[in-house]
UniProtKB/TrEMBL annotation, chains A, B:
Domain of life: Bacteria
A GO molecular-function descriptor: NAD+ binding
Oxidoreductase keyword on record: yes
Record GO biological process: tyrosine biosynthetic process
Gene3D superfamilies in the cross-refs: 6-phosphogluconate dehydrogenase C-terminal like domain, NAD(P)-binding Rossmann-like Domain
Native organism: Ramlibacter cellulosilyticus
The name this protein goes by in its record: Prephenate dehydrogenase/arogenate dehydrogenase family protein
Keyword set, alphabetical order: Oxidoreductase
Keyword S-adenosyl-L-methionine in record: no
Pfam families attached to this UniProt entry: PDH_C (PF20463), PDH_N (PF02153)
């Protein structure tokens, strides 16, 4: 149980976290700050936060748990803004989709207090953003990846684990690099592919007519293409090395399949499809593949 | 109102059609045939069809409306099997995802009776197949594309339009080639991409661990990768020319985005994402894009 949550970034992810923490009885008071004062005000009016802080630093003041729910590109500047009030007893976490860059920024900026920081990536989200879409159930039943480093205080790591479990999440730990490679494959590349597919269609002469024909498969496949542009620009940039690696692997598979189609090699083509189809048919979110 | 539906292929698409036709009171009797006798039997036991036919030809005998709900690659052989009993008064339709090849097969095989054939593509489906998943609501509210040719009898075209509208579908007409190009973009290429993504992940050393981390975005993006391998082998082969064209367009967009990420060109990258995101945010299934 925490006394005070310092929330930096009162959007979808941060707002949902504050609501979930309160509902679970895990925190008494939420002090929130957003870059845009109107967002902070709206969060208070909605009851997502209790007190508006005029700066990130003041949101941290007096908190025993701090959540950075800002775009990954803003992580370093946020650390800089709060570093003077981060203490050894304070649990600091983020919710960023990339972890290598976040960990590097924490080392550089927090220095002696980097042990207070437990890098976290809750695998949850929506294709809409903003505090008005905040939802106390956003994290319920979802996975959270913690990527501690050698300097992470074990006590804080334990607190972080308990906290997310208290919100109904399943928690696992892995190294930041392992995390980034895996999420390039299951999240960042799929976003890039969905954006690229939409982009390619839009710019065709009869793009509007074509789009009008999309059915349920197209709907699901492209849902993530509606995601927030700035957020995804930052993620793709932050994880570009792993993204490019995963794109190469993907392209080999794609070119193979296209070649088989062109050559009329139905047997080989079916084999590749069958492999993908079988694995996807048995896949269940949050369960290790067999 | 029809007297007798001759259903060739009692799987998901055909079975759902028979159930919907009966529920809507559009047909009195359904005579069904499937390649696999156990499927035909199961369809009768489930009440999806009334009578089991021992051959495609006998399923057509006495029917005033015939639906071919077979894999696109089996269309030509099915036409050959039934040609002797196709009459000028009989409405014959298919449900294939590609239309150029189906129309060509109809011309070649049905010849003088090609006018009875109204090529149809209901934009509906599930990632599962088989009569046990047949659902009278599969077509409700969905779009159906009819791709008549010059020889298509206007009376049959009208009957086909009325029939699908009677099942709660929105019907539009277009040329077979226009259809195939559009569906390469919104359906066939997305399937290929989803298969290729899965394939690329599976073959990585820690593929199973990576797959275990997929969240809601991955779930939706890859749903279509669980689709039936034989059916999709046939579709990708049948529409390979348009598929390759659309893949080229997609690849240009993808390579552009990857290059911008690699170069750290956040401004341009955001611009491309924003364009895709804006269009997808306003997209609604079955509505022409603005």
């Amino acid at each position: 149980m925490f006394e005070q949550l310092g929330l930096i970034g009162c959007g979808l992810m941060g707002g949902s976290f504050a609501m979930a923490m309160k509902r679970a009885g895990l925190v008494k008071r939420v002090v929130g700050y957003s870059k845009s004062p109107s967002t902070t005000e709206r969060a208070r009016q909605m009851g997502v936060i209790d007190v508006e802080a005029p700066s990130a630093l003041l949101a941290v003041s007096g908190a025993d748990v701090v959540l950075l729910a800002v775009p990954v590109a803003a992580t370093e500047s946020t650390f800089k803004a709060i570093r003077h009030l981060v203490t050894a007893n304070m649990l600091v976490m983020d919710v960023g989709s990339t972890k290598r860059d976040v960990v590097d920024a924490a080392r550089r900026v927090l220095r002696d207090h980097v042990g207070s920081f437990v890098p976290a990536h809750p695998i949850a989200g929506k294709e809409v953003s903003g505090v008005e879409h905040a939802d106390p159930d956003l994290y319920t039943g979802q996975q959270v990846i913690l990527t501690p480093i050698d300097k992470t205080q074990p006590g804080h790591l334990k607190k972080a684990q308990d906290l997310w479990e208290g919100l109904g999440c399943r928690v696992q730990q892995m190294a930041p690099d392992t995390h980034d490679a895996a999420f390039a494959a299951v999240s960042h590349l799929p976003h890039l592919l969905a954006f690229a597919l939409m982009h390619g269609i839009i710019h065709q002469q009869n793009g509007k007519e074509i789009l009008g024909l999309g059915g349920p498969g197209f709907k699901d496949f492209t849902r993530i293409a509606a995601s927030d542009p700035k957020m995804w620009r930052d993620i793709l940039l932050a994880n570009r090395l792993e993204l490019v690696e995963q794109a190469k692997i993907f392209q080999r598979s794609m070119m193979n399949m296209l070649q088989m189609a062109e050559e009329g090699n139905g047997e080989k083509l079916e084999e590749m499809i069958a492999e993908a189809s079988l694995v996807r048919s048995h896949w269940r979110m949050g369960q290790k593949a067999k």
